[in-house]
Amino acid sequence: MSTIVPDPDVVLGPFTVDDVVVSTIVIPYEEEDGTPVDLTGWTPSTTLLAPDGAPIAAASTIDANGALAVVLPGAAFEKPGEWAISTTFVTDAGSTLRVPGIRFVVEDVATGWLTLYSIRQEWRDAPSSDVVLFRLLEVAKSQVIAYTPEPIPARPTPNLVGAQREQARDVWNQTKTDPASIGIGEDVLTIRPFPMSPWIKDMIRPKQAKPVIA
Questions:
Q1: Which residue, 44, 92, 137, 178, is most buried by CB atoms nearer than 10 A?
Q2: pLDDT band at residue 176, thresholds of 50, 70 and 90?
Q3: CA distances from 72 to 58, 59, 60, 104, 135 (A)
């Protein structure tokens, strides 16, 4: 059997911490060439994977159209980060088939750092994938915090948020021109941190004017 993948038009989230999802999520599958796959007769076993890899059982069935129907457990999103829906099928021929999962983002919007929504308002050419953009923001945030002098504020100041935005853009632009990333699609792209530009460092640690002695 050829590899089957989730329909790329299915997009989940982003969600926020403590969101309760009670609706059924329908995920059609298709072959790699885009041909729809009817999953009727297959038995699914679905797991919700938290950012730390902890598995949470989720109910799943095959609906009348031959697509996977998943009911996420309520109040499951207790941790921010990248989550995934992972499914294994027992096929009508009795064999086991594990298919690529669907990743999505859960955010803690109360931190004061940039969210997927807020960065998209300021960055028109941001990557379309929520997962890739979330990784960019996390990489940029960690670099900004590492360069922030002690004591690090409980909530980021405007200059730190601005530095996170500019560093995310800078890392993305450098990633796209990195030879190791050529030919890699957004959804599977690994974000590597790059050195911070001096002008972004100046946003984090503004230079103090020195008095002139006549």
A1: 137
A2: confident
A3: 6, 7, 9, 13, 24
